[in-house]
Amino acid sequence: MPPSYNEVTSWTPDQLRLIANGLFAMKARLDSEAPKAGNPVLNLTGAEWTGTARGPANDRAEAITRWLRGVADECGDLADAMNRGAFSIEGAVTALENGTKSSESQGYVLNRGSREYEVAFETAKAPPDTEYDENVAFQHQTALRNLGISADQAVSDTSAAVSSALAALGGITPASIATSSGSMTRVANQVDAFREVYGRVPVGENEWRMAAALDPHSYNAKNQGVPPVVSVIKIKPVPGQGVVATGLFIPIDKVIAGPGWNRFNRNLGDNRGFDANFAPENTRVSYFIDYENGVIVARQNPSCDDKGNVKTGTPSVKASQLSDGTVAIAYDGWDPLAPPGPEKVGWSVNGQTIVTPGHGGARVSGEATDFPSMETYQYLPDGRTQVLHQDEAGDHHETGPMLNLPLHHDYGSYKDDLDRFEQEVVNASPGNDWIPVETGEIAGMTDLGDAENPPELKEVR
Known about the structure:
alpha+beta; six-stranded antiparallel beta sheet
């Protein structure tokens, strides 16, 4: 589905041009500096330096100069790709703006937030004596939607060209100094992961947040490349609510990895405080609600202990949504490095979160274990970030999980919010008359699924 008019016109391709200008300046500097890297050696006379080491030294000096010139050329290619991309995207945006104006001059007014490019006829904007024509409306809708598709394709083409140029630049960088090659790979991985679910490349800060959450790779050294477990579900969009993200993290460097004492290894923590811009990998469990596009992503990262063991557990994550867009997420993520059966003895991070959209932003409530720390933020489309919830871990000691994982607490208006959902019931008097008692578990929740073919959640009530 193409991006809406509002999404397309919010793009800032001029930022690509600013980066390109910086790259062109870097190319010029590298071109001028390249000879200086090798010339101090190459310009030495035979009288100044003789011997068997001179030949290899000359070869090394020439290689450094060639490499710097190669980097300069690749920087130029990357700048060209960005400049061409900026021009292409700007042209696509202008074409959509002009097409929209033309359509509206005929009375067919675009719903600028619609990704289907719906049009409505307004007599006041139409030429005199013009009446609504269903075929004409369809023609305008189709033409505008095609312009939206073209704009999306311009971004995709630019992304591909920039990725190719980055790959070429990374490919000529010696491993000993390729400090940025990981960043290049990470961006490419995030684009691929986002495209698999959304069918296009990410645009804007919030979509890059979702791309990072979807990325099925690990980059932190402690994770040793062991991937996270990522699951996805599609929901009803609620435009204007942006992204709501929740992260659960261990605030210290290590904790006891089992419901015991010194018998067990120590699990490595996230060793951080609250962070409104937390990276998905710097959590134990996280989940992101993209209200603009109607996607929920949940992620459990690998568990690592102080003996070098790394393993990822598969969490249970379910969701439900009310007709007003309110989302409930039930999660249960257990430690795969704990002794057998940790989920059976309360050794898991579990709970339920309810996010209720509102005109001034969302609010959140829920039930959570007393460990680890928990944070929820809303990233609004206008760039503002709202702190919805911050919940300090029950204990900042290595015994924190042992003492606090079996315990739970509510936050926000949880009981009132939970009552809006139909709940599972049990008989309070087994063997006698049916006396239904609500369990607190929401009925009919849907499991999140694989990113390749995510399930679709139907709204209730």
